[in-house]
Design goal:
seven-stranded mixed sheet; four-stranded antiparallel sheet; globular
């Protein structure tokens, strides 16, 4: 079983940046991809970005060119660099691997 813990959320003004981190522990040998999802109030959880152990990345269209996912295999950690943040990026951001979710970290974009 894998345990995930996110960090790095907070309040930022529109146009600002935040960097989220997700540390994995437990049965990490089974991980071949790590991703980020988000859930805004009153909306369903949605896919944001994913990185495979090969280095291949996927992004949802609304964050392409603004968000960058990366990983540190030695530290079993994945990052989400979020630039040019918009109010519509406000959500709880969750780290995900198949079979496990982190508790989430709040990101609020507001002036």
């Amino acid at each position: 079983q894998v345990q995930l813990v996110e960090s790095g959320g907070g309040l930022v003004q529109p146009g600002g940046s935040l960097r989220l981190s997700c540390a994995a522990s437990g049965s990490i040998f089974s991980i071949n991809a790590m991703g980020w999802y988000r859930q805004a109030p009153g909306k369903q959880r949605e896919f944001v970005a994913r990185i495979f152990s090969s280095g291949i990345t996927n992004y949802t269209d609304s964050v392409k060119g603004r968000f960058t996912i990366s990983g540190d295999n030695a530290k079993n950690t994945v990052f989400l660099q979020m630039n040019s943040l918009k109010p519509e990026d406000t959500a709880v951001y969750y780290c995900h691997v198949p079979g496990a979710w982190g508790p989430g970290t709040q990101v609020t974009v507001s002036s």
